[in-house]
Amino acid sequence: MPALTRRRAARSAGLGDEAAVKAAYAAHGAELYRFALRALDDPGAAQDAVQETFLRAWRSADRFDPELASLRVWLFAIVRNVVVDQTRRRSAGSWAKVPTGGDDEVVAALAPVPDDTAIMVDRWVVAEALGRISVDHRYVIVETYLRGRSYEELAAERGVPVGTLRSRSFYALKALRVAMDEMGVTL
Questions:
Q1: Distance between CA atoms of 160 and 110, rounded to whole angstroms?
Q2: pLDDT tens readout for residues 65-98
Q3: What residues does the RNA polymerase sigma-70 region domain cover (predicted)?
Q4: First-residue to last-residue Cα distance in the chain
Q5: Is residue 183 a contact partner of residue 122, using CB atoms and an 8 Å limit?
Q6: Under CATH, which architecture does the 3-95 domain have?
Q7: Separation of alpha carbons 87 and 49, rounded Å
Q8: Do 149 and 143 form a contact (C-beta atoms < 8 A)?
Q9: pLDDT beyond 50 at 1
Q10: CA dihedral over 73, 75, 17, 65, signed as positive or negative
């Protein structure tokens, strides 16, 4: 089956948009979670495995071929790979060097590692939302909020009055909020 036909089939099978992925999660998420929980024996790791499964499925939706396997079978193949990856990571971590110093060194070694996942997800959401607004609005937001440039500097560069740029910034933020609402992001 040609790749274009497979992509169309994958989209029609429910992997091409966010609503369809949510429907697939509603249909198969509980089964995948139980599978991951039995394999990992850790509720948090099982939740992470299911989340990673749907992320991988969404990213590779064009590789799903409904003629080869059902969506359920394909998702179980992905979750199995995720569980194997997590198990390997766990076993690799078990060989970590154990501190031999005093109590302070042991406590420092056992301190939780900062989790940057939330920051990465926030960045992805903002980048996705920025991609959904007009070029002029995106330019104003990126230059003023992300790069820290002044309105005066941008106005001189663009050849527009400062007031126009401030107005554009106001409407750009409004458009960004609407885009994020459409994505289902709550602030």
A1: 56
A2: 888 888 888 898 899 999 988 888 877 655 555 5
A3: 25-91, 129-177
A4: 43
A5: no
A6: Orthogonal Bundle (1.10)
A7: 11
A8: yes
A9: no
A10: negative
DSSP codes of every residue in the chain = --HHHHHHHHHHTT-SSHHHHHHHHHHHHHHHHHHHHHHH--HHHHHHHHHHHHHHHHHTGGG--TTTS-HHHHHHHHHHHHHHHHHHHHHHHTTPPPP-S-HHHHHHHHSPPP--HHHHHHHHHHHHHHTTS-HHHHHHHIIIIIS---HHHHHHHHTS-HHHHHHHHHHHHHHHHHHHHHTT---
Count other C-beta atoms under 10 Å from residue 67's C-beta.
Answer: 8
Q: In percent, how much of the chain has pLDDT > 70?
A: 76
Lookup result for tokens 């406590």: 107
CATH number 1.10.10.10 is the correct assignment for the domain at 117-182? yes
Tokens describing residue 158: 């663009």
User: What does the domain layout of the chain look like in residue ranges?
Assistant: 3-95, 117-182
Q: Residue 150 has what pLDDT?
A: 93
pLDDT digits (tens, 9 = 90+) for 17-38: 788 888 889 999 999 999 999 8
Q: pLDDT tens digits for 121-160?
A: 778 888 888 999 999 899 999 999 889 999 999 999 989 9
